[in-house]
């Protein structure tokens, strides 16, 4: 099981792995069960803090680092070619906060791209994307501190100075009820036209389902079979930009009930576009909402500061879920929307004269209140304009 990918200035990319059974010799081939491809492990090292010791083989129970591979990611199971097996992988939460970064000098553009790609490979909770509307590079992670460390590493390890924008919360969107819709796409522009007609139901996905749940109920060739995958592709693509503010949708269920086609004018692209237009048009009827990330917060504080800290959490729309004692201090457990937590560490120091500490981790997504949703949507529209 590969549990960490690191970049070493001398040997290149290292995959740290633990051997659960058998023996692996340096120079031999193994099977990566995620990709289905075979990989050659050219050298194996035993790691000693700041130095590596080359070894000829590794056996069950040992931890080593391999070099010379093409495509190994964190959580991959590597096995003998003739006996594939998948060990339980780690689950990594989606990023909840993003900032825009750009290099201070034009000369660093390529260096920044390569550095971010290396960091994203090492850390599965860190993601890099380009914003379609603004063309900016957005880096996303698990919190303010996470992104501060990434920016610091860019400077120290990769010698790239960057300017960064304000932190932005990674909202999501979801449909809350079932709605039916008919979308007819027609275009006539001299010569061959475009035509597609689909009738579908759209609703929240079943419990535990992620991504697009697509069901086709087409009977009797109302829509030819070869066009159905294009409709599915259209909905899948559309989910990447929600209808309210352009945020991604995690899960949607679509049932394709009926439709019609034109023998000459219908093609795969027409049906794909009809799906994308139908998705946007049905948003109001399916009651699309904005979801915001909610964080689990734990604060360790002296008893005399407890009242102030709880009062501050209430102001931040927090919900206190419990209080305990630990080593003479009080522990406050709460859930708080991430959008209210920027700069919290500084406020906490002020409230407790520097004696309280806090830890925060992602909990879940929940529907944002009306006023917050309206702000997010108007801000998104403003950015697009």
What does this structure look like?
The chain is an alpha+beta fold and 385 residues long. The chain contains seven helices and 24 strands. Strands 1-2-9-6-7 form a five-stranded antiparallel beta sheet. Strands 11, 12, 13, 14 and 15 form a five-stranded antiparallel beta sheet that branches. The longest helix has 15 residues, at 370-384. The protein is globular. The relative contact order is 0.10.
Radius of gyration: 26 Å
Q: What portion of residues is helical?
A: 10-25%
- How would you classify the helix and strand content by structural class? alpha+beta
Separation, N- and C-terminal Cα atoms: 48 Å
Fold topology:
Elements: E1 2-8, E2 12-18, E3 23-25, E4 29-32, E5 38-40, E6 43-48, E7 51-55, E8 57-59, E9 63-67, E10 78-79, E11 97-103, H1 109-122, E12 127-130, E13 137-141, H2 144-156, E14 162-164, E15 168-169, E16 172-175, E17 179-187, E18 194-203, E19 211-216, H3 228-238, E20 251-260, H4 268-281, E21 288-301, H5 306-315, E22 319-326, E23 329-337, H6 344-352, E24 357-367, H7 370-384
Parallel strand pairs: 19-20
Antiparallel strand pairs: 1-2, 2-9, 3-8, 4-5, 4-10, 6-7, 6-9, 11-13, 11-14, 11-15, 12-13, 16-21, 17-18, 18-20, 21-23, 21-24, 22-23
Helix pairs in contact: 3-4
Jot down its keywords.
about 375 residues, five-stranded antiparallel sheet, 7 helices, single chain
Summarize the structure.
This protein is an alpha+beta fold. It is built from 7 helices and 24 strands. The chain has a 5-stranded antiparallel sheet. Strands 11, 12, 13, 14 and 15 form a 5-stranded antiparallel sheet that branches.
């Amino acid at each position: 099981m590969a549990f960490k990918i690191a970049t070493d200035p001398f040997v290149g990319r290292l995959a740290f792995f633990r051997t659960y059974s058998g023996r692996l010799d340096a120079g031999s081939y193994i099977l990566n069960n995620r990709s289905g491809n075979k990989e050659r492990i050219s050298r194996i090292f035993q790691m000693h803090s700041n130095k590596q010791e080359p070894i000829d083989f590794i056996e069950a129970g040992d931890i080593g680092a391999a070099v010379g591979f093409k495509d190994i990611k964190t959580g991959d199971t590597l096995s003998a070619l003739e006996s594939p097996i998948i060990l339980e992988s780690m689950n990594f939460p989606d990023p909840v906060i993003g900032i825009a970064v750009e290099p201070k000098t034009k000369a660093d553009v390529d260096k920044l791209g390569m550095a971010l790609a290396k960091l994203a490979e090492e850390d599965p909770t860190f993601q890099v994307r380009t914003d379609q509307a603004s063309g900016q590079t957005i880096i996303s992670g698990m919190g303010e501190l996470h992104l501060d460390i990434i920016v610091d590493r860019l400077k120290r390890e990769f010698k790239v100075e960057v300017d960064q924008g304000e932190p932005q919360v990674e909202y999501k969107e979801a449909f809350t009820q079932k709605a039916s819709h008919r979308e007819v796409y027609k275009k006539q522009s001299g010569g061959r036209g475009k035509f597609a007609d689909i009738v579908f139901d759209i609703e929240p996905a079943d419990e535990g389902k992620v991504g697009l749940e697509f069901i086709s109920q087409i009977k009797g060739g109302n829509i030819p079979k070869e066009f159905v995958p294009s409709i599915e592709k259209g909905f899948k693509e559309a989910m990447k930009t929600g209808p309210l503010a352009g945020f991604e949708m995690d899960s949607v269920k679509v049932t394709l009930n009926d439709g019609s086609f034109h023998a000459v004018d219908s093609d795969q692209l027409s049906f794909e576009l009809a799906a994308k237009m139908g998705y946007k048009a049905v948003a109001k009827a399916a009651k699309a909402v904005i979801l915001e990330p909610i964080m689990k917060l734990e604060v360790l504080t002296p008893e005399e500061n407890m009242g102030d800290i709880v009062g501050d959490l209430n102001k931040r729309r927090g919900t206190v879920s419990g209080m305990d004692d630990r080593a003479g201090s009080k522990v406050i457990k709460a859930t708080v929307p991430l959008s209210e937590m920027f700069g919290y560490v500084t406020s906490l120091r002020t409230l407790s004269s520097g004696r309280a500490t806090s830890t925060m981790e992602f909990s879940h997504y929940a529907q944002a209140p009306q006023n917050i949703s309206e702000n997010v949507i108007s801000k998104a529209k403003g950015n697009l304009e």
